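User: My collaborator sent over this chain with a note saying "see what the structure looks like." That's all I know about it. Can you take a look?
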Amino acid sequence: MFLFNYHYRLKCIFNDKQLMFWTFVFPILLATLFNLAFSNLSSSDNFLKVNVAVVQNEELNQNADFTQALDSADNLFVVQKTTRADAEQLLKDNQIDGYLYFDPDLNLVVNQSGLNQTIIREFLNDFIQSSSTIGTIITQNPAALGDGLLASVTSRTEYLSAVSASQSNPDPIVNYFYTLIAMTCFYGGFLGIKEVVAIQADLSDVGARINIAPTKKLTVFLSSILAATTVQLLELLLLLAFLIGVLGISFGNQLGYITLTCVIGSLTGVTFGTCLGAIVKKGEGLKISILISSTMMMCFLAGMMSADMKYIIMTKAPILSYLNPVNLITDCFYALYYYNTHTQFFTDILLLCGFTILFSSITYFVLRRQKYASL
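Assistant: Without extra context I'll predict from the sequence alone. Here is the result:
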């Protein structure tokens, strides 16, 4: 009876086109839109060199140290040497961020205030300060030239080094796709609601027949939930294949833990739907409305609409991040992608298992107490 009902519910789920659209087609369409919207977002953060012009005149030719310093900063500036009239025109046309000239001192001309203009100003300040220090040393202690002191003034030593917490570079874009997967897990709640409605005699004809049939309702329900979880897990794995193979989203190389996250996430999403289906006594439409609104709220708090919201929750109300199963699923994927250890991952997995047990227990005790005066 268990296997018969399992196969029967699989056929019913696959034949429900509306259900298959929202649990499978819609997440793929949303992932495609995400990819189109965010494809150039990371590249926009790359540093662009500052365009600067230098007025070519006799004073510039007499300041070889400045020319040498400017040439050594080719990782910062794109330099054009031109006349002052041409430099003014380039600045007016916004083709450069500023221009430099000697008359006889070094001067900077800009037409607005911004990051690029600040970079130019800081470079000039550093050059002027270093030149002044070297001039003072030569005047007061010419012997220092032979002691290597001059070289130490012009050299720059970095005492801090950036060390990544993992082999993967931080990427805020992947969080949107991880949240999308978590949303897909909880859209499995559609399947859970369907299975609960299917065994409730006051909501469906199938439920009425199940309640009068000489079979254990728990056995029928467990086989139905297994069928729903199977479909949900299959859809989730296909979505993962689409994200990795077609869109090129990185999930790391820990496929075993990724699969475990999909299984636990699917169970949590389906049991969340069964819990709502059992608690809400009204029709299927209201149950689905509550499922969609609650899922979207959890996705919002997990950073699906804005990555800043996830940061705000973690800093202002961190307890909410642990009470939000959508956020826990998202963090599981990000922990596998970014961290070298699995402490955060297993913490999230254990919490998701706790939610699954809670939702399943509520569903069991609510359905167990349901009695019908007549059918």
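A starting point for your reply to your collaborator: The domain at 50-154 is CATH 3.40.190 (D-Maltodextrin-Binding Protein; domain 2).
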